[in-house]
Design goal:
Layout (H helix, E strand, L loop, with lengths): L33 E3 L2 E3 L5 E5 L6 H13 L4 E3 L17 H14 L3 E5 L13 E4 L7 H8 L5 E4 L6 H13 L5 E5 L17 H8 L4 E3 L1 H5 L2 H13 L4 E5 L17 H18 L1
Parallel strand pairs: 3-4, 3-10, 4-5, 5-6, 6-7, 7-8, 8-9, 9-10
Antiparallel strand pairs: 1-2
Helix pairs in contact: 1-2, 1-8, 3-4, 7-8
Length: 284
């Protein structure tokens, strides 16, 4: 279906300015399915992404990678360039972290995803299967435009103070550059409530499914900020119709260099994998 972006008309005959047309179901009525390695995201499938907040060492990453694979995970995640609020906290291993992540993924037979923070590092991601744009960069339009020139699949996380419309407009930057392989991710928004790190907006899942053809993931780890809340939120997101989950996992969270309190233990991730699949089966 061809959409004339420069001559869109309202029902009353007046001309409208193009907004998030490429992400809308008007432009693409059927669900988009994004291929990552041999795995499909969207279109009725369910994707379980797991791994540490940050790649810290070869031993740490390979231990967790094996646990993710054994639990039935579909994609291995790990932060390599870490945008931290404080400049004095661990900033990631950078290029060395990407190398370790790719090696760990190949070792266990899983595609890998990691976050990008700067255009100048894009060449380092050639062997990465899926690039993540984090909440802090959701409106980094130069970065989004550059990713639009690539065919590499992109997870676009919602900013913690951004509306769903702004999320879709950010996705529009990538699609308008020619890259259709975009996956949206709800990871919680900043509210007045201090009992969790963020407030998980589960309403985003059905609303986005109505507005857009793009797959919608949920990251309950960054929303909860506390381990015991992650699994309940993950189960709720599954029941709400999410196309998949991003879960932080660490075998020694008390020693983690980044976000240890919100990381599930491998056995908890394994149980969650069983839970969400049971929910999916019950909803069929």
């Amino acid at each position: 279906m061809q959409i004339d972006l420069m001559n869109c008309m309202c029902s009353n005959g007046t001309r409208t300015e193009p907004e998030h047309l490429l992400t809308s179901r008007m432009a693409h009525p059927s669900d988009t399915v994004v291929t990552v390695g041999s795995h499909k995201i969207g279109g009725g499938s369910f994707t379980l992404i797991g791994g540490p907040c940050a790649v810290e060492s070869e031993e740490q990453l390979f231990t967790i990678a094996r646990a993710i694979k054994d639990a039935g995970g579909d994609i291995l995640r790990g932060g390599t360039f870490k945008p931290r609020t404080s400049p004095y906290k661990f900033q990631g291993l950078g290029a060395e972290g990407i190398r370790l992540l790719v090696e760990a993924g190949r070792w266990v037979g899983l595609p890998v995803v990691t976050e990008i923070t700067s255009i100048r590092n894009l060449s380092l991601y050639e062997d990465v299967d899926l690039i993540q744009v984090g909440a802090r960069n959701m409106q980094n339009y130069d970065l989004l435009s550059e990713l639009g020139h690539s065919k590499k699949p992109v997870i676009l996380k919602r900013g913690f103070s951004n509306t769903l419309e702004e999320l879709l407009l950010s996705a529009e930057y990538i699609l308008s550059g020619g890259n259709p392989n975009v996956i949206l991710c709800e990871r919680g928004i900043r509210t007045f409530e201090p009992m969790t790190r963020n407030t998980l907006d589960l309403s985003a899942v059905p609303v986005l499914h109505e507005l857009t053809h793009l797959p919608v993931l949920v990251d309950p780890s960054h929303a909860a900020g506390t381990r015991q809340y992650v699994a309940p939120l993950a189960r709720a997101a599954t029941a709400a119709g999410a196309d998949g989950l991003m879960i932080e996992v660490h075998h020694q969270p008390e020693l983690a260099l980044s976000d240890g309190p919100q990381a599930l233990l491998p056995e908890q991730f394994s149980q969650l994998s069983l839970d969400v699949r049971a929910i999916r089966n019950a909803l069929r």
